[in-house]
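Example record used in the benchmark description.
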Amino acid sequence: MTRASPRPLDEQLCFTLYSASMAVSRMYKPMLDAMGITYPQYLVLSALDEHDGLTIGAIADRLALESSTVTPPAKRLEQAGLLERQRSKEDERQVHVFLTAAGRKLLGDSKCLGDTLVERSKMTPAEVQGLNERMQGFLAAVNDEG
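Model output (structure tokens):
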């Protein structure tokens, strides 16, 4: 019995998504290095920019990660003075995380990431936003286990 070969990599959406993610990470790296943060740290800061005071668990949920993956970058961001972690008074197991003024400033400075992405894509901001919305719909469908 012969097995059908998979499609060539360039015809596989999974490979295109992976390659796109890697390309964006490579493009962002020098800018993030100049800011003194990593991409996971940038994501933590961005999640807090959306809703300051999230717990580590809520940040992990927002980023589709495990809490144990979010804690190390959060600790490093705290050491850098970009965020502050506070144990909940109601439940000591919960740690709430807040941006500091320095963290907010850094996020303001990070606008160059999105600007560079739009510029390099040779797409308009509206086209990039449309692509993002389509990818979010795709992600929602793939994550729907029902």
